[in-house]
Protein: PIG-L family deacetylase
Amino acid sequence: MALTAAPQASPLPLFTAQTRLLVVAPHPDDETIANGLLIQRVRAAGGAVRVLLLTDGDNNPWPQRWLERRWFIRAAERERWGRRRRAELEEALRRLDVPATALRSLGWPDMGVLDRLLQPGQRALAELAGVLDDFAPDLVALPALGDRHPDHGAAHVLVRMALAMRGRSPALLGYLIHGRDEGPLSPGETGTPAQQAAKRQALAAYATQLALSGGRMRQLAERPERHSSPATTSATVRCLPWRPSPLLWPRLRLSAASSSGLAQQWPWHAAPLRRDGQGGWQLAWPAARAGDACFVRLSLALPSPWIFDHWGWREV
Structure:
């Protein structure tokens, strides 16, 4: 008989008028699908909510082709589409009782959050740190590290790096949209009938996304909202969770980021790896000092219409 993991207690704290919730949304609609009830609960308690939008969701070609009856999408059309999606988010927030002044938009390229993470100079971290310093949240809802959308996983790592560099330690609530839950699940929040209705109304603001994916989006939004506390580790052994076939090595890329603020990417053959004596690999990266959180991502450098990660990010 298969065993089912016991559900975890909810990681949500008691909300009060002093609660300051920051919701990190890589794209318009992430804040509603995974956090629509959470936002309403904080607002109902009198707490403050801020939504940090990383991209405008402008790299969204198939709905745009369908609704605009065009095949070729140039930079101007993408920019216009991004403005349309951001306007939908503003309307969704209004329906969740969040004022327009609560939105902060960084305008990063859609499908480009990983590039922001890997770029030299720590500009992305500085932008995130500015939002953290300005709002000073005590609660941050961010994409789960295991989310298989590359923008979502990279967003998790960037936020964790920015928090570590600023010495801030708000409670973290990871939310998963793309992929499957790993480990024990929290019971999930279903909200009151009124809150559920408001969340459905907020989702309805996203006409561009509902046009081709309405059934899938409604199914995602109707799930109980589950948030998990990201695991922390103090292990000094940097063992990777993957053992890829040597046949894949020429096409593999390994990315790593440290909470000290450094990030780098290598072809597999050039990555700082050593055997662990048990058939696996250890990360021998000087930037991954003992005591720092270290995040690693394995990816395959092959052109594909499939945008989601196969391996994704892990913390070691």
User: Anything to note?
Assistant: The chain has eight helices and twelve strands. The longest helix spans residues 75-95. Helices lie at 30-44, 61-68, 75-95, 113-118, 123-135, 150-166, 193-204, 207-222.
